[in-house]
Each structure stands twice: as C-alpha cells, then as structure tokens.
Amino acid sequence: MKLDSEHLEILAAIVEQGGLTEGAEALGKSQPSVSRSMALLEARIGLPLFEPGRRPLRPTELGASLARLGSRIHRANKEASLLVQRYRQGLAGRLRVGGSPIFMDGVVASMIAEFQSRHADVQIDQSYGYLNQLEAGLRNGGLDVAILPLHPGQVPPDLEFTPLLSGNNVITCRAGHPLTRTRGITLNHIAPYAWIAPPIDSPLYRDLQRALKSIGQEDFRVNFSGGTLASIQSVLTGSDALTVLPYSVVFLSRRTIPLEALPLKIDHAERQLGILRVSDRQLPPAVRQLTTFLLAECQRLQARMDHDQQITRRRG
Amino acid sequence: MKLDSEHLEILAAIVEQGGLTEGAEALGKSQPSVSRSMALLEARIGLPLFEPGRRPLRPTELGASLARLGSRIHRANKEASLLVQRYRQGLAGRLRVGGSPIFMDGVVASMIAEFQSRHADVQIDQSYGYLNQLEAGLRNGGLDVAILPLHPGQVPPDLEFTPLLSGNNVITCRAGHPLTRTRGITLNHIAPYAWIAPPIDSPLYRDLQRALKSIGQEDFRVNFSGGTLASIQSVLTGSDALTVLPYSVVFLSRRTIPLEALPLKIDHAERQLGILRVSDRQLPPAVRQLTTFLLAECQRLQARMDHDQQITRRRG
DNA sequence: GAGCTTCATAGCATGACGCTATATTACGGC
DNA sequence: GCCGTAATATAGCGTCATGCTATGAAGCTC
C-alpha cells in the first residue's frame, strides 16, 4: 500500500512543530485541513499516529518514525523546488556551447569564465566545430548554442543568428615585427614572410586565401598550420611569420601576448561573430542568461575596439 | 512554489524506465494518467522536462535532475510503507513493559529474550513497579502493558487483565538444604531458619507474612531483604535461609540455580500472574504479538509445572 | 511512406483537499 | 471538581487532480 508523501510531510510538520495547529500554520494550511489529512492517513494505515486523548497532539512511536521519513521527503521536495527556481533564473543547469576554435579560444572562453564566476552552478560543456557540425549539433540537441562567424545569408531557415561582433580579419604579426615599423605597407613588403595557417578545412583558412588574394598575393608560403590559437600565438610571437586572425581575437590577445595588427586593408567576408541557435526551441534559462551576458560583453568589447581603432588610425 | 512529490516520483519512474509507457506500467497506472501528470508538472514549473519531439521520451537536464530527487522521495516513501507493514505485523516498534520485579526477572525476562530473537526490530523498554505504579503508567501512556500477579477482584474497571500463570507461592531453599531431606515438615522444623524477604513494600513481602502466619509462624527473623531476584538467589544458594517465591520462578530458576521448593502447603492469595492493560486502548501490534507470545509460553510452562508437581507429589 | 510504437487529448466519474463555521474534548487554574 | 481557554474534530460545500477508456497525433523503423 502506497502512502501519500504529502501526508507524511504534514505529519512531519506537526511533529516538528509540536502540535497540529502549529503544524498547519507552518504549512500555510487551515487546521481542519491538516486534521483531516491526518485522519485519512491514520485510516489508511489502520494504526494510530498520535497518542489518543492528548491535547497538544503527541505522536506514537510509529507516528514519530513516519514523521522522520516525512521530513526526509520534505527536504527532497524542497530541494527540487529550489533547483527549479535556480534553473529558472539561469543559475543552475548544464549548458553545451559549440563554436569555431579560434573565436572560442580567443574571445568566448574568457567571457565564459567571467560568466561562470557569477553563475557557479552552471556546468558548461564546450566543444569545437565548424558550421556543418555545429548545425547538426544544434538540430540533434547535442548543443544548446553555437558561436561562430557567419554571413547573414548563410543562416539556415530553421536556425536563428544573433550577431555579437564584427568579424573582420586582420593580418597579424608579433609586436616589434619589422613590418610594424613600415609605413604604407604594400604587397612587396609582405611577400618575403612566411604564413601561419589555421586548419585547411576551417573558414579562417579560406579567409586567409581570400585576404591574400585581395591584396594580390595569390601564392603564399605556409610554415605552420593546424594549430589552435595557443599554438598560433606561440609561433607568431616566436617568429616573423604572419597570419590572418579576427581583429577581436588580436585585440583581446594583446592584453597578454605581444601581437600587432598590420594597418593593411584586406578583403573579408561580410561575416559577423554571433550566436546560432534553433529558432523554435525554448532554451534553458541558463543558456538565455549566457547569450544575454555574451551580448553585453561583446557590445563593450566592440566599443573598445572601435575606440582603439580610431586612435590607431589617427596615429597611423 | 511547492512541487507535487507524486509528480516527481512519476518523473523518476519514467526516466528510470526509459519511457512514459514503461514508466506508467511500472507505476501501475494508465499511460494517459502519467502523461497528464507530467504535463501538469511541466506547466507548473514552466520549463520543459523532456526533450521536445523525441519519441522514446528523453528528459532534459532539469528533468533528469528532478528525477533524481523524485527517486529519493520514492525511496523514502517506500521505506515508510515498509515500516508500516512491519509495524502492523508486530515486527517493529517500541514496546514498554512494566512488571513486578520478581516475576519480570524470574519468568518474563527469558520469554522476552526469546520473543526478541524472533522480532529483532522490536525495541523493548522494561521497567519495574507494583500495582499502583503500573496502573499509573498504563493510564498515562508510559506503559503499553504491565505484568504482575493480581487477584481477579483487584482489577480496576478501566483495565483488563489476562491471566498467564497461577501465582501460588512456595517456601524455597537451596538444593541440599537440611529441610529437603526432612519428611513431614512442620513449623518446628522451619523455625530455626532465617528468612530472606523481598522489599517491604512489595506484595510478595505481604505474601511471606501471610504464608508464615498460615503455618503458625507469626514472628520470623529476616536476615536479608530488599534485593532483586538475582540477589535473593545468591543468598539463598549460599546459606540455609528460606524465602517465599512464586512457584513458577522457582521452577524456572532451577534450570540454572540449585533451588528447591519445600513440600509444605502454605496459604496464598488467589492471585494469578497476568498481563494488565488499558481495556479500550488499541494496542500496537508488537504489543499484541508479545502478549500472544507470552500467553503461549506460559501455557507451556504451566503444563510443565503441573506435570512436574504430579511427579513430585507421587514421589514425595 | 506504411505500419508500428509512443505519446497526447477528450470526456467523464470519483475522491482528495481547500476553506469557513461549529461542535467536541483536553488542559490548567482556582 | 468546575470553568474558561485552547486544541482538535466534524460538517458542508466548491474546486481541482486523478483514475479510467477511447481516440487522435506524431516519431521511429524498415
């Protein structure tokens, strides 16, 4: 025979409060209501839960034992309510973010760190991938959101894209690179240097091709490729090699790594770094929290980058 | 906002069974019923518990977390049902038995030991007292049952008395006592010996007085008094002192302690050892179990005593 | 895409639970 | 031992959750 958990919780309240009336009050119910609940419970188990003829109602041995279990149930139930509440506020839950490697490493990861310091109970599973993989992940539920640079026209109809940052690329080299002291850089100045390339299947690699083609350099020498941002940064700072990176990545990397963006205009796809998600699916609150947070952070970052570029332009 | 524990348990069942239909089956409910319960729960918390558009229903992160809590609730609830069941069968609970010291020590304790070996989860609180105390204990709920020798006419109207054993007393001495070799014992034979007396306020003390008076010995010498059965037994076996004890106590003591009952008829109150309890109060099942058990044990004991006395009589 | 499985919805009956008002019963003080 | 007070139980009524069967809708599998 199954007992009603609610009844056990009520019993626990009565025993803990030392009386039916107080118990009812603690539960926010009327006294007759809990009285009847206890009568029902007693009738079902067929045994007395309270000593008969005692006015501040006192539990029997069985009543006390059941009250302990009721208390356990109450705690679990309360924990459930709390979990829902925290989940609703985006303070709890698991969150699966996928994104293109360079952006994730160079821009998003530090923001996620900041986010997590505020939302300690949100567990974040980060993964890497390009458009196709990320789309698949979003559709099959393996990802909550994807973060990647995308052309507005590229967005599939069942997905929704929220831009975060402009996605313009720049030619990057180490600080103190000979080219940083060169005024009016041309193709001729660049030609001698070797290139660091991202993985061949990455959009960034195609960006690199396109950028170099746009400045007339069809054919280029690659002496390092395939690494993640950390490797690219290391090779970049340890050599005179050049590469193409999103400006935002360079901008943020400069806080800790001596990099420079060359003031050479290159063609770049009209892409924007942004958040891609399934449009009709209701996102977990933690995800909404994160997207809101990233949006705000990126707006600040964009403002700082714009400000910085104005100064650079004025100086340059 | 409070969640329905029942809903959480249902959720747990669904998640554990890997589907709504299986969950419903495991719970012994119809599929539509649990479906609606989950719809209600989802509506209340305002967040999805299951991945949308998945046919073997799969929980979301939140759903899975709540299911874990539901499982905890389920375990506690099941434990409660089990407790009730065992309690109802008299296999669990606490049981407070009070009784007159000599009987409790000499007869009841060993039976209780036997009872407890069969009902391991029954906790027994034993206490000692005479009629007045025991009555009070029964009435104020401090005792479940009392075990004592009582005259049928002495039973108060609100209490109920179930006889267990005849309460006749005998004069007792150590085995090998000079009197045991004496035929046709008279007052003169007994006169020289000192007496061991129970506590002065005990009915047994009055029995002793009465018994001795009935054989003409108004005035007797007490050289030990106030001890419990264990002490009385020790003094008895270590000296030639005499005492008056219920025959049942002597009978059972003989299994381990060398005592003899003198074949001297003495007057004794028409009392019977029995169980006293409040007549209108429903007793915990464990108590009923114990009383039934004691009844059976005492019947067997009575039969053995009767048998033994026939033999003794034939021999004597 | 056919067929099967799985889940959701509809409709109805029953029972539990909420409340207020009121009766009953134990406790404490004199 | 009685009385006032406090604590609990009962009565009566409306609402909502839950049980069921029958049936519709949507995924999954091959």
From TrEMBL, chains A, B:
Residues 3-60 form the HTH lysR-type domain. GO terms for molecular function: DNA binding; DNA-binding transcription factor activity. InterPro entries: HTH-type_LysR_regulators, LysR_HTH_N, LysR_subst-bd, WH-like_DNA-bd_sf, WH_DNA-bd_sf. Keywords: DNA-binding, Transcription, Transcription regulation. Pfam families: HTH_1, LysR_substrate. GO terms for cellular component: cytosol. Belongs to the LysR transcriptional regulatory family. This is HTH-type transcriptional regulator CynR. It comes from Paracoccus haematequi. The lineage of its organism: Bacteria, Pseudomonadati, Pseudomonadota, Alphaproteobacteria, Rhodobacterales.
